[in-house]
Amino acid sequence: MRFAISHSSGRARAGTLELPRGTILATPVFMPVATQATVKALSSEDLETLDVGMILCNAYHLHLRPGENVIAGAQGLHRFMSWPGGIITDSGGFQVFSLADLRKITSAGVEFSSPWDGSRHYFTPESNMQLQHALGADIIMALDECVGYPAQPREIRAAVERTTAWARRCLAAHASLGGDQVLFGIVQGGVDRSARATSARQIAELDFPGFGIGGLSVGEGSDKLWEMLEVLDPILPEEKPRYLMGVGTPLDVWEAVGWGVDMLDCAMPTRIARNGTLFTSRGRLVVKNAACAKDPRPPDPECRCPLCSRYSRAYLRHLFHAQELTAFRLSTLHNVWFMLHLMNFIRESIVAGNFQAAKLEFTRKYSNGEGEISV
Question: CA gyration radius for the chain?
Fold first, then answer.
């Protein structure tokens, strides 16, 4: 993997990330979430049409259904889902954390029950590397332990110690398996400044080619999230990519990139699309609302996505109220398009050296100063 920073504007940076298979991504990059080897409501052809560069698949869910043996038998995720672009898989650490009553964590690994059929499963750093190698993603993530918010200091410290110990074991297992996949480490530490700094130093010392920033956007609020990025900024190596996991509203993307983040993923843009909420250049549009019932305008007059270039707000509202599946596809196409074009705009502002001015202008149009608005 090759990562190169070509331009910076403040802490924000633009560059390229070249994956082992030859895919070249412009950074900062937003990666739609394809939890079960699909971005919900979209096909791989749709993703290509939108010019998506990289997607995130979930190792935990794919382990449970259909199983890594099925995917390995199809020669990996790229062929299994007929997707030529980049793929990153997470380790499943966050999903296991969210199970709460269905899992038991020890220094050796984590035992958990499937929420689908109650079957018992066990992740160790070694077995997790075998799982992700079988899936065949371009970038894979070390197994980590995430804590919620709020969390006790001793709980946070224990999670940091375990995450570092597991990272060492993941590195050893990854090296023994061979291949050209790229393994990223993950920084944990909750919202404890000292624990975050400790985790960052320990993971950075292990010399991973890139670093995930995990355990945030779990209820701590934006102020604490940005505080943690401020802590990490001087510790993580500048020459390696930084991946903020699970953050993806338009305003949060601007803020994260401003703290030097190069990669982001989030399921929220596609999830709210299926619920009838669209990102637009002037805030969020809840298309199910009665105000859209006879509105002939496109959802966002400034957008040229497959939805806005052809259909009206009234038509999309009708599809949702008639429970037509086309509503999910069109809305999801729009929100993914919006996020990709937002990232293009952000990259252009970094290259031009006016990131902060562009951020203020976008925020002025998108928000009333008190958060995201409906239009």
Answer: 20
pLDDT at position 373: 56
Q: In this prediction, what percent of the chain has a pLDDT beyond 70?
A: 97
Q: What is the model's pLDDT at position 10?
A: 97
Spatial separation of the C-alpha atoms in residues 56 and 328, rounded to whole Å: 20
**CATH topology (fold) of 2-266:** TIM Barrel (3.20.20)
Residues 157, 343: Cα–Cα separation, whole Å = 35
Here the tokens at position 29 are 């990059």
Integer Cα distance of 263 and 244 in angstroms: 6
> Which amino acid, one-letter code, is at 60?
Y
Q: For residue 260, what are its two tokens?
A: 């030097």
Domain positions in the chain: 2-266, 273-366
Encoding tokens for residue 210? 């890139």
pLDDT at position 370 over 50: no
Per-residue model confidence (pLDDT) at position 368:
61
pTM here?
Answer: 0.96
Q: Which residues 6+ apart lie within 8 Å of 212 measured at CB?
A: 141, 142, 144, 184, 185, 186, 187, 243, 245
Listed residue (94, 67, 81, 68) closest to 265, CA to CA: 94
12-18, strands of its sheet edge to edge = 2-9, 12-18, 24-27
Strands 182-187 and 139-141: parallel
Query: Could you give the residue numbers annotated as active site?
Result: 90, 265
Nearest to 15 by CA among 23, 2, 5: 5
Three-state SS at 245: strand
The string of pLDDT tens digits covering residues 302-349 is 999 999 999 999 999 999 999 999 999 999 999 999 999 999 999 999
Between residues 164 and 372, which one has the greater pLDDT?
A: 164
CB 308 within 8 A of CB 334: yes
- Name the β-bridge partners of 32: 266
pLDDT at residue 100 is higher than 90 = no
